[in-house]
Design brief:
Elements: H1 8-31, H2 38-51, E1 55-56, E2 74-78, E3 81-83, E4 97-106, E5 109-118, H3 124-142, H4 150-163, E6 167-168, E7 174-176, E8 183-187, E9 205-208, E10 211-213, E11 219-221, E12 228-230, E13 236-238, E14 241-246, E15 249-252, H5 258-261
Antiparallel strand pairs: 1-4, 2-4, 3-12, 4-5, 6-10, 7-8, 7-9, 9-14, 10-13, 11-12, 14-15
Helix pairs in contact: 1-2, 3-4
Length: 263
């Protein structure tokens, strides 16, 4: 499909959806603590979304492997779960890291973001993993100059992560976003010889979401058809921003407070 550049009106509607995403993620980050379950966090996200007159973006998404549709408002991925973790009744433990991916549809337009939270006292290695993943997202945004090619940004991201001693996941990538959660272009976090390059044109809105593993970049999908874990069971982290490209530079539409104040 062709890349769809957004008008000022459309960007305004996406911005409103993203503001709700930020509000919800901030509240989830404040609530997440040892003893709290991811099911509780999911219920809170669903309730806040309903009150705002929006729809959770992930609930009911069909499974690509023919399994049941996604049952929750958030993806709650703990420790060695990379993405698409299904919320459950297991309490969070001191030392866990928890990635929360959340999106909404508001007035027809979508917003999407992800954070990784450190629960209680985490190990130095886990903390460095989370900080590296957060920092590589920040670095990517800073390098999204209008009219630049994405491959240049992806190369910077991959190099940064490798220098930190971690690996960029290649099985999952970012995406365009607007009327649909997943639009063109495909936004890889590495230089992909099989495609994924495009020009950062003003009017483009993309979800940039680096996923970083402490060990091997390899991952595997579990039998539920959703939960994706690291193949070597080592920790992983995930951050995501919805970003608009303007003539003046990139605009982060999901400036989640916890990225600087809590994580």
């Amino acid at each position: 499909m062709p890349i769809i550049l957004k008008s000022a009106r459309e960007l305004g509607l996406i911005r409103q959806a993203c503001e709700l995403v930020v509000e919800v993620l901030d509240q989830l980050a404040c609530k997440a603590a040892p003893g709290v379950t991811t099911a509780e966090l999911d219920a809170l996200a669903a309730e806040l979304t309903r009150r705002a007159g929006a729809q959770p973006l992930f609930t009911g998404v069909p499974n690509p492997h023919g399994k049941a549709a996604f049952p929750a408002a958030i993806c709650a991925s703990r420790n060695n779960v990379l993405v698409h973790g299904i919320p459950d009744e297991k309490p969070l433990l001191d030392g866990d890291i928890l990635s929360i991916d959340f999106g909404v549809r508001l007035d027809g337009y979508c917003g999407d973001a992800a954070i990784t939270l450190m629960i209680g006292n985490v190990s130095p290695q886990a903390k460095r993993l989370v900080q590296t993943t957060r920092d590589v997202l920040k670095l990517a945004v800073e390098n999204c100059h209008p009219h630049r090619r994405w491959f240049e940004v992806a190369e910077i991201m991959d190099s940064f992560v490798k220098k930190a001693g971690f690996t960029i996941v290649q099985d999952f990538v970012g995406h365009g976003i607007g009327l649909d959660m997943h639009e063109d272009p495909r936004v890889p976090n590495f230089v992909d010889p099989n495609g994924g390059d495009f020009v950062l044109e003003p009017g483009l809105v993309i979800a940039i979401e680096p996923m970083v593993n402490a060990g091997s970049k390899k991952v595997k999908t579990l039998n539920d058809g959703w939960t994706v874990r690291t193949a070597d069971s080592k920790f992983c982290a995930h951050f995501e921003h919805t970003v608009a490209i303007t003539e003046d530079g990139p605009e982060v539409l999901t400036p989640v407070r916890c990225l600087s104040e809590i994580c």
